[in-house]
Amino acid sequence: MVVNTSSTLPSVVCLECEYGAYDHGFCADEEISKGIIRNVPPGYEMQNNNLAVDFDGVLHNFDKGWYDGTCYGDPIPGSLDAIKSLSKKYNIIIFTSKCLPDRPLVDGFDGYSLVINWLSKHGFLNYIKEVTCIKPRAKYYIDDKAIKYDNNWEDIIEELLN
Question: Could you tell me which of 1, 8, 87, 99 has the fewest CB atoms within 10 Å of its CB?
Answer without folding.
Answer: 8
